[in-house]
Amino acid sequence: MRKVLFLCTGNSCRSQMAEAIVNARYSKEWRAFSAGTRPAGFVHPKAIQVLEEIGIQHQGQSKSVEQFLNENFDLVVTVCDDANEECPVWLGKGRCLHEGFRDPAKAEGTDEERLAVFRQIRDEMVKKIPAILNS
User: What is the CATH number of the domain that holds 43?
Assistant: First the structure.
């Protein structure tokens, strides 16, 4: 079983969604984890909601990258949008890859407009994750 770690800053949205998608759809080959450099302490409710819309039940927990430093991963993926924020740097073992996604937690507008951004990021991840895992 190969292991992948998804990293971002708060570990409340993007890395959580990526972890859930891999564990729900690619669990025969991969085990996914997620963490952040400054964990928010919660998983964003809209991230959980948009995952449920595609049949993925996720009960993640916002975690610090420090708890994984002594673990070996086959792949470590930073998912922050580095045009807008600072991506974490992985100092542990594992091949590193960057695939930036916009932070849906920063979306503005009505509740429905913000939810649409979460759906957009989720859909981008669903499309890109197979290529990430096979890279």
Answer: 3.40.50.2300
**What strand order describes the sheet that includes 2-8?**
30-36, 2-8, 72-78, 93-98
pTM of the model: 0.92
Q: How far is CA 76 from CA 94, 110, 130, in A?
A: 6, 34, 14
Q: Which residues are catalytic?
A: 8, 80, 87
Q: Taking CA 39 as the corner, what is the angle to CA 131 and CA 116, rounded to the nearest 5 degrees?
A: 55
Query: What is the extent of the structural domain holding 83?
Result: 2-133
Q: How many CB atoms lie within 10 A of CB 48?
A: 20
CA 49/CA 47 separation, integer angstroms: 5
Q: For the chain, which residues score pLDDT lower than 70? A: 82-92
Q: State the pLDDT at residue 88.
A: 60
